Amino acid sequence: MFEGVSVSLRCEDSNSSAGWTLRRNTTKQQKTQCGAGWGKPKDSSCDISYIFGWESGVYWCESREGATSSSINISVSGGPVILQSPVLPVMEGHDVTLHCKTKTTPSNLPAAFYKDGSLIRTEPAGHMTIHHVSRSDEGLYRCNIRGHGESPPSWISVTEKPTTSAPPPASAPPPAAAPLQLVFSLLLHLVVFCPYIISTVIMVSLYRPRPTGNGLPMSISMATAPSSQAEQRLAEDSDDIVGVTTEHHF
Length: 250
Prior knowledge:
Elements: E1 7-10, E2 20-26, E3 30-33, E4 40-42, E5 45-48, E6 57-63, E7 72-74, E8 81-84, E9 90-91, E10 96-102, E11 111-115, E12 118-123, E13 127-130, E14 139-145, E15 149-150, E16 154-156, E17 158-159, H1 179-207, H2 218-249
Parallel strand pairs: 9-17
Antiparallel strand pairs: 1-5, 2-3, 2-6, 4-5, 6-7, 8-10, 10-13, 11-12, 11-14, 14-15, 14-16
C-alpha cells in the first residue's frame, strides 16, 4: 500500500472475535501490540490513521491464551507505483487478480507484470488475472508502469486445496441365500420334525379302535371269548363225568 493511507486490521475466528490482540514485527519494533506506540485498539481490531514506510512488516493476531493466527505481510511504499496482491495465501484452483497502481490518477495505466524477475505480459488496463492458480504460480511478483516507475516486489503464496474425505460406503444388502443353503435348511427342518410326526402316527395307529366280525370292538370280543370257551369245556367235562359214573353202576 501507499505510504500515508489509513489501515484497519481486525482479528476474526469462526466462533468469536473477542479476546484477540494485533501484534507486529517491523524493522524498528518486534512483537509489539496495537496501542503500544502504534495504532488505536478497539475490541479485536486496530486502526492506523497514517501508515509510514517503516511500518512494513509482519502482522498477526494473538489470543489471551497465547494462540496465534496466520501472519500477513504488509508492504508500505513511498514510491509512485505499487502492486496490490492478496495478503493471505490463495487456494489452488482459485483466480487471482493483481493491480498495478500509481499514486496519482489515473491509476489504470498499461503495466508490465513480472514473476521472479521474468516478464509475464503487459496488460493495457493495469491489472492481470491468473486463472486457476497452482503451486507453480507461487512466487515474487512486481509491476512497472512506463513513465512512473516500478513497484516493490510482492510475494504470493498458494496453498493446496483441502481434500474432502470420501463418504462411508453404503452398507450392502445381505447376499441372497444360495440354492444349496436352502436345500440344507429344508433337510434340517425335516430331520428335526420327522421323528415327532412318525411317533404321532404310530401312537394314533395303536390307539385307534378296530372293528371285529360281530360288529363289536376287538377289545370286547377278546374279553368275552374265554367265557364262551369255558362254558363249552365245562359241558364237555360234565358229559365225561356222567358217562364215567354210569359205567360204574353197570
